[in-house]
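=== RUN LOG ===
request id: a7f3
mode: sequence -> structure
chains: 1
length: 349
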Amino acid sequence: MNDLSDWSDRSIKSEIRVFMIDPHNLNIIRGELEHLVLSGCSVSFGYDTDTRTSANLETLGSNYISGSWLRIVLYHGDSVIEIGTYVLKNPPGMTIKNGEKHYTYELQSVLWGLSEDYCVGYFSIGSGTYAVDAFEKICTTCQKEYLINGARNYRYTATKIFEAGESYLSFLFDICDISSNRLDVDGHGRITLSPYNTPSSITPSWTVDEEDPNTMLLSSDIKESTSSEDVPGRTIVIYSNGDQEIIASADRDSSSEFSSQRRGFMISEKYQVNDLSPATKARAQQLAEEYLKKSDKVITLECSMLYFPCKCGETINLILENKKKKYMIQSISEIKYDEMTMNLTLKEV
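=== RESULT ===
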């Protein structure tokens, strides 16, 4: 469990600095971006967003070195935290305010860069290839730095061919889906591969109690929502390989609030499976039942907190009205380092 005391203590000095980074060697700093306007700077993270993180910066004047990536670093007491290393999506925009030039920078993660990088020919992963090797091959092909954190090393049982004109990011997500790994990017700008763990199995990293005199909650104005209307009553798995086709389905129990017996109609969700091992009806049925269990009602909370260095995918114990519940951090939006505040979306697990 992490300690929140340093982050609830507003007397500890915090400072944001932004460095210009060589995109071909993330350890090389070309210089520091000067004259930040913190009120115009923000960072967001999303567990389910393809690019994972984005940011906006504003400076008074500009000493930006063309072609550099930008790394946002937080200095808090004795702690140094790399918030993120970003691609500049567009050339800096300029406006004049009170006779002074203000520059704005729209930033995206390196994963966004891969979403814009399309393969010019067919890309194949041979039968017998391990998922980690395929991940490394794509990162190397695209000249991107990467980090493997104990990833599950699935082995392909049949050759996988990706169509020409598809993005390299889509290839990476496909590899992660089949191997039960998670794709992400770290603060240094490296693409990361690590095992996917169900949120319910993750030990909470933080505990926030609204009754604590030093609580991180900024307001008791918390918005709760559910997604019960989107939960399927049936999942269908379809596997095709040449002339072979396997179809399996799983339905909710009739007593479930999501069943057609309760709703009066059926909501189905279809999964097209490209690799099935073993390629049997029983395995397809197992997958259909697994997907059905994962498709459950989602309860989310939206709240504002003082900033602390949490990450999407971490879990947190939140104590409201003396009741403790476990949540996964689904998104972190509008981190404002001039105020040291952030908005969280928490998913009950």
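=== NOTES ===
The mean pLDDT is 93.
The chain has four domains: 13-108, 114-195, 199-226+298-348, 233-294.
=== END ===
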